[in-house]
Amino acid sequence: MAAPREAGGEAAVAQRIDPAREPGLSPEQRRFMAQVELAQRQRALQKRLRGRNVLLALGIGAVTAGIYGYTFYSVSQERFLDELELEAEAARARASQRERSAAT
């Protein structure tokens, strides 16, 4: 069965009709059309929300990974500074020993 043709030669696909003004529709058909439109709107909304939820989850994951990364980096820097401070104290101790041995 071929699709009905318009004057321009193209097929009339999914023409939108107003159920309230269409004379050949029964109340049951109108109710069914309203249910289908509502379901389509809900699916579109869910799809949009799903996309936003994915973006939000990725953002939260990136922030969390950043916090952990920064924490690990700062802890390693603290260890480095602690080791540097220990080396500085040892160098001061050696220098004071050299000064004492040179003075005697």
Automatic annotation (TrEMBL):
Database matches in InterPro entries: Coa3, Coa3_CC
Keywords carried by this UniProt record: Membrane, Mitochondrion, Mitochondrion inner membrane, Transmembrane, Transmembrane helix
Entry superkingdom: Eukaryota
Transmembrane segments: 53-73
Keyword flag Cytoplasm: no
Residue span of region Disordered: 1-26
Residue ranges occupied by any Cytochrome c oxidase assembly factor 3 mitochondrial coiled-coil domain in the UniProt entry: 42-85
Main location: mitochondrion
GO terms for cellular component: mitochondrial inner membrane
Subcellular location per the Swiss-Prot or TrEMBL entry: Mitochondrion membrane
Topological category with respect to the lipid bilayer: Single-pass membrane protein
GO BP terms, alphabetized: mitochondrial respiratory chain complex IV assembly
Subunit structure: Component of 250-400 kDa complexes called cytochrome oxidase assembly intermediates or COA complexes.
Family: Belongs to the COA3 family.
Functional description taken from the UniProt entry: Core component of the MITRAC (mitochondrial translation regulation assembly intermediate of cytochrome c oxidase complex) complex, that regulates cytochrome c oxidase assembly. MITRAC complexes regulate both translation of mitochondrial encoded components and assembly of nuclear-encoded components imported in mitochondrion. Required for efficient translation of MT-CO1 and mitochondrial respiratory chain complex IV assembly. Required for assembly of cytochrome c oxidase (complex IV).
Name the record gives this protein: Cytochrome c oxidase assembly factor 3
Provenance organism: Aythya fuligula
